[in-house]
Design a protein that fits this description.
The chain has about 325 residues and is α+β, with helices and mostly antiparallel strands. The chain has 11 helices and 5 strands. The protein has a single domain, classed as DD-peptidase/beta-lactamase superfamily (Beta-lactamase), CATH 3.40.710. Helix 4 runs antiparallel to helix 11 and helix 6 packs across helix 7.
């Protein structure tokens, strides 16, 4: 007896013990295979159509908040830990008198949960934000009901290529100057910064968003709070992690996210950078660094920025773990 005949007899014997229609027991093997395959296909299609019916997964970070009034800081906040090694690096750069620097380091958390105050060092306390002001502008775009068709390209031009035209495109997408200011301030407020203002078109010499005077402490704390809303802000933040041809400052630190901006005013070349890094012990922090060079030497300014960034990454100690 052939193998096919034996299989067919065995099939009929097993099926005979079940209450099934006569046509099914006597059907040829090829027809049974076809029917079972069809039933499997229908079951798969049905299952796929129902796969999205359940509730969406809960976000893993604090959802975006809109503050109608400035929130109160954590009443139990303590002073930032001393950073003697960073102060030494700052003094070494500033001692010649040609450059002034400022550094701000914040523990990750919201204005209401951050357990430590921001550490600050150096001569510079505030200054032009330059292109780093596009960070809140880009996040504001994420809130728009209609997203730009070329959003990915716009973000790459601004954050990966560092293109001034890309920065301008982000700002322009938010509408008129007044509309862009309102939307950007809303983002600043959302992430804890109620003290920074954006100049009017009449007050600024050109590109008003680049003329924002952003205190280093405020910007660092803004970035620390953005980290707590990663699910919402990741389309912007992910572009701050992509490699560049000539990395400087925080960009030289592994697993960092940063945005740089520069400009010249009254003969002084100014370079600024803000972002998120992991310290030597693995603790994530937000950092803002600014270097002003009175001689206008851009290369020396970039070197100073990189020195400070590497010093912060390797020497900063005692910062609290994230408290989102």
């Amino acid at each position: 007896m052939s193998r096919a005949k034996k299989f067919d007899n065995a099939r009929k014997t097993r099926l005979g013990k079940l209450r099934v229609p006569a046509w099914f027991k006597n059907a040829p093997l090829w027809l049974l295979v076809f029917v079972m395959a069809l039933m499997l296909l229908l079951a798969t299609v049905y299952g796929a159509s129902k796969s999205g019916d359940g509730p969406e997964p809960s976000p893993t970070t604090t959802p975006s908040q809109i503050y109608e009034a400035e929130p109160e800081p954590n009443p139990n906040m303590v002073e930032a830990p001393d950073q003697p090694e960073i102060l030494k690096a700052i003094a070494a750069i500033e001692e010649s008198g040609e450059m002034e620097v400022g550094v701000a380091i914040s523990a990750i958390g919201t204005v209401e949960t951050r357990p430590q105050d921001t550490w600050s060092g150096g001569t510079i306390v505030s200054g032009p934000a330059w292109a780093t002001a596009t960070i809140p502008a880009a996040i504001a775009i994420l809130d728009e009901a209609k997203q730009p068709e070329d959003r990915k390209y716009m973000f790459e031009k601004s954050f990966v290529e560092g293109s001034p035209a890309g920065d301008d495109a982000l700002w322009a997408y938010l509408g008129t100057h007044d509309q862009a200011v309102s939307k950007t301030l809303r983002i600043l407020h959302r992430y804890g910064d109620w003290g920074t203002a954006i100049p009017s078109e009449e007050e600024a010499e050109s590109h008003p968003y680049r003329q924002v005077l952003w205190p280093l402490k405020n910007q660092s704390e803004f970035m620390a709070e953005v980290q707590c809303d990663w699910v919402h802000t990741v389309p912007v933040m992910a572009k701050m992690d992509e490699p560049t041809n000539s990395p400087i400052g925080l960009q030289t630190i592994p697993r960092s996210f940063s945005k740089s901006g520069d400009g010249t005013k009254d003969g002084v070349f100014s370079l600024r950078q803000t972002g998120l890094i992991d310290l030597q012990d693995g603790t994530p922090v937000a950092v803002t660094i600014m270097v002003n060079n009175k001689t206008g030497d851009k290369e020396a300014t970039r070197d100073a920025l990189t020195t400070l960034a590497k010093t912060v990454a390797s020497q900063a100690k005692g910062f609290a773990r994230p408290s989102c």
